Amino acid sequence: MLSEPVVPAYGSAAAQRLASMADVTASDAALRRFLHGLPGVDAVGLQARAATLGTRSIKTTAKAYAIDLAISMIDLTTLEGADTPGKVRALCAKGGRPDPADGTVPRVAAICVYGDMVATAKDALAAAGTADIHVASVATAFPSGRAALPVKLADTRDAVAAGADEIDMVIDRGAFLSGRYLQVFDEIRQVKEACRREGEGSGAAHLKVIFETGELQTYDNVRRASWLAMLAGADFIKTSTGKVAVNATPPVTLLMLEAVRDFRASVGVQVGVKPAGGIRTTKDAIKYLVMVNETLGEEWLTPDWFRFGASSLLNDLLMQRQKLSTGRYSGPDYVTVD
Amino acid sequence: MTPSTPMAKTFEYAPAPESRAVVDIAPSYGLFVDGEFREAADGKVFKTVSPSSEEVLSEVAQASAADVDAAVQAARKAFGTWSVLPGAERAKYLFRIARIVQERSRELAVLESLDNGKPIRESRDADLPLVAAHFFYYAGWADKLPYAGYGPDPKPLGVAGQVIPWNFPLLMLAWKIAPALATGNTVVLKPAETTPLSALFFADICRQAGLPRGVVNIVTGDGSTGAELVAHPGVDKIAFTGSTEVGKAIARTAAGTDKKLTLELGGKAANIVYDDAPVDQAVEGIVNGIFFNQGHVCCAGSRLLVQESVAEEVLDALKRRMATLRVGDPLDKNTDIGAINSPEQLARIRALAEAGEAEGAERWAPACDLPATGYWFAPTLFTGVTQAHRIAREEIFGPVLSVLTFRTPAEAVEKANNTPYGLSAGIWTEKGSRILWTADKLRAGIVWANTFNKFDPASPFGGYKESGYGREGGRHGLEAYLDVR
After folding, report:
1. HSE of A275, CA atoms in CB hemisphere, 13 A
2. Domain with B311 in it: what CATH number?
């Protein structure tokens, strides 16, 4: 256990802490030995724990709190080939005022778009007076990650230059699965470098690293990918792109929560977690918040350290919120479709 | 940079109580003999109390020798017709009982949590599904007995006298009654003094299922009723689950008689965590092993044997996890640990925990508010425990874990086996060969690998040494109720 205070992954002090782990990332062999030396994951036990946490019954005041917290943690997302400026502007309006009839609803954490839509989103949020909402951009040849490194870096720099506050990168799953861990590590490091902003005092874009856990397949791989990304400087670790058959699941997310907990205990750097894809209902979202609460506690229960990557989740949260405040279900015609 | 945080509150779970309205407890209950409820011959009653609130739930008849005799005679009479029914016909009743248990599971789960003190999450998700599964499983055997490996036409024994404990009242009833009926025996069952209600509700289920009169008889009472039952000359088979002390007394009673006997007694199971264990899941397994059902589990993993090289890491993780356990109202759906079943049991747990401290072990428990009324004991662990400590040798039967360390696999096995008991054990390692090597050397009836307290009606359960003899569950469980002598 560490005696020094814990530092956030996106602060300037994190680099020094990570440098203390330089020996395990010095070579491919050293990195492999380290990652394969992490404790194994028993799949049955992990799934059983996630299922048990899923039985928590969150009612009344706790539910109201959880719904607002979940709304404030959403990265409201549109990642379609058919995205247009109009669609992105509508999403920004929705994120800034999720329920037009109720000003007490909190804003979402961020709007998540492709890189070419960053400027549109920034402008729309500024025009609406909701510039505190971040713009997150996917990058590095999202979703497959199949491009040469210079292309991925250019993709990242482009989004950062357009004003992205956060970059959601994908790892090279091919390199990871063939055991070239150092290559994945170096790519994350270079993308992190590319997140630095030109100019004075504007800070770097925060980096979320997407594993596409549905393609990594095993829980042992997810634990290794988590440590690898955190050692390389990830500010957030994220489950999925939302573009493959299996996206965020409770056991995978629980495992990543355990990884950030253990990473903080041994390295002293706090990293955030973002499950993405497939979380559509209030019930699901609350299960995730319960997992965060009972695995990591209050410190992670803020949009700074936990996010939901989702699009349709917001409307279900709004309907449940209306139900809780009025005692009646309204229906999908009473929330906005964007 | 930071998006605004919504509220300055914390994520505190609001109370989420399961409704008591689903169960209707009568102010008094009689004995269930020959298909009818009747008062005790001498009119004596005793109260049953909810251990979480000390509220009196109901008054129950105290069966005397005369009542036990009437129940055994009713069972004997019913045996004549029940035992010659085709197996497929007996199976129909068992399937029917299983389905009614499923249909009434919410009611029975609430009842069990009220009378026993166990959290509703466990009675709902563990006890009741297992009860139904047990009846379904043995219903399936009823018409296949010629293929069970006990000869072409194995015969039942006759009247089974069954005495069960308070820790899993309805589940232990199912373990006893389902195989007995499937094999063609009739039964007289005595539930524990502190938890008689679910057995009496089961009597109602027998009536609902149209079970012939006298096939199942329920006699409530204290230890004296149990003693009368096991000593009754009309009983052909005794099945007992409970303490080793009482088990020995029953064995003495049965000695020299024609009664067939199975005993499922105490335990002091070792839960062995090797240095290559999946740590997070092992911690869950340790917690589940000792804090499931407040540690009122004969196969509880009450001795943690952890390899010295990872002891500190595992203990840190275990303490962190224990701090999240929610102790309190058994009917709250978010409760992890409920009430201790009785003041007597609470006194015994306290006495042994004090002995642990007096003998030099270090006691630790997370900060937790215990309710003012009822019987409560915080989840507790002791470190620095050696094989010589009482808390490493005696069964505490409560939420108290004794932590010991070992250096090599051989030492782990030696320490695990160094106990008069031998009911269960757990092994945590990612290495398959080490699981097999260890399991082969453990003297315990049930060995779990990378899990703990997993039950299945198809899997036989029973002990070595002072943990008893005979097996319940699975094909092996049929033998106890068949005349294979």
Report:
1. 25
2. 3.40.309.10
